[in-house]
Amino acid sequence: MEAGESTKVGLLEKRGGSSLVKDFGSESKLLWKIAGPAIFTYICQYSLGTLSTTFAGQVGELELAAVSVGNSVIAGLAFGVMLGMGSALETLCGQAFGAGQLSMLGIYMQRSWVILLITSLILLPLYIFAPQILLLFGESPDISRGAGKFALWAIPQLFAFTLNFPISKFLQAQRKLMSMAWIAAGVLVLHALLSWLAILKLEWGVVGAAVTLNISWWLIVILQFIYIVVTKSDGAWTGFSMLAFHDLFSFVKLSVASAVMLCLEFWYLMIIVVIAGHLDNPVVPVDAISICMNINGWIAMISFGFNAAISVRVSNELGAGNAIAAKFSVVVVSITSMLIAVVCMTIIIATRDIFPYLFTNSEAVAKETTRLSILLALTVLLNGLQPVLSGVAVGAGWQGIVAYINIGCYYIIGLPLGIILGFVFDFGSMGIWGGMVGGIVLQTLILIVITSTRNWNKESQVFKNRRVNVWGGSVASVQESN
């Protein structure tokens, strides 16, 4: 954090309403410094899998389906778990950085490595027994075998996730996102060349897709770690330490809460596609929902960038004891993200008869996609605020609370509502997606109430105690006392 930034924003309450516009501009500038590179990084990393799938589609329909299912379902499940477990660092590293305890960031990162390595070993059977698992869920034998082959060759990617997410959160907490963005951009260019070579030129097909993804994700890990070691991250990296194995239990609890919170959101969208596959004549609705999900995924990268930005800002300011600055940051990022969401929603509605043909030549699929575009536009609007509020929850350490909210809103309300509307009332894909939207609306309203009614001064002191006595363990206690 640049010197004086927290203090400058923290003085907001003393400066009066006349400086509101200036304060908004200052906070917006801070947020864009984080959100801009984060959005670019997420888009580049999201594009790795998309490029592999695209090249596989040039080989044949079976290869396209195998890579698609292997990458989105098998690797996607692991990605969600590892991302969720790693997001605990957003809370801990962000607050430690805000409190000036830089050396704890490296310890926290190493603890996360230990926990995620154990998690990856637990997830390993998902890759090994992928064909049997996919067959169990009704996937065709040919696609299951192809996706299983992809999954076996993609096992190194699983262990790249183990190291990558803690490293990313470590750098994110220090606002070193430009380095991540440059690395992601360079790897994406190389990935495109390797994919062309392995999948098309050498005709490795599904295996080539897995191998190139392995190489690309490991390159990201290696280059980011070299950057950390060379720069020392301004004192945040002091080398490997046995302290990484201390006080793991409390760290595990926060990691599990983070994983549950994010996975419940991440898997929710995947389940919608699976449910649509049980409709009568499912090809058209599944294709239409998949197109809409792809568009939603691209736009969601913008929201994820703001999610990262608000998580960093809230955790930094609460760690530094600046409750007013944390609260003001929430207001600024919410307004900014919602304005962008309104623009995206307007574009979707205006082009609803055009954009489907960018993905399909089928009139039936295009017509169904156009029909779903209103719900897509509403989802994009909601995603302008919902990820921001989730980012506030991560930065503030409310993962456990939000996990319960997600279970209730998504799986007790949203999914059953979608099934009833889609199958009982025969609304088809519109009903299934409508249930999802209902769950997101309810979750967003609850998070708005929680965020707006919190006593932020009290939260700042509570998080200081938690960081020292619960999350940080004995090491943080010693540093805090110093």
From TrEMBL:
- Please tell me where this protein is predominantly located: membrane
* Organism, scientific name: Penstemon smallii
Q: Where does this one sit in the cell? A: Membrane
Cite the PANTHER family for this sequence. MULTIDRUG RESISTANCE PROTEIN
Designated name of the protein: Protein DETOXIFICATION
- Where are the bilayer-spanning segments? 30-48, 68-92, 113-138, 150-167, 179-199, 205-230, 251-276, 288-312, 324-350, 370-389, 401-425, 431-450
Q: Which GO terms describe its cellular component?
A: membrane
> What family does this belong to?
Belongs to the multi antimicrobial extrusion (MATE) (TC 2.A.66.1) family.
| Keywords from the UniProt entry | Membrane, Transmembrane, Transmembrane helix
Task: Reply yes or no: does the keyword Transferase apply.
Answer: no
User: One of this protein's Pfam families, by short name?
Assistant: MatE
Annotated membrane topology is: Multi-pass membrane protein
Q: Carries keyword Membrane?
A: yes
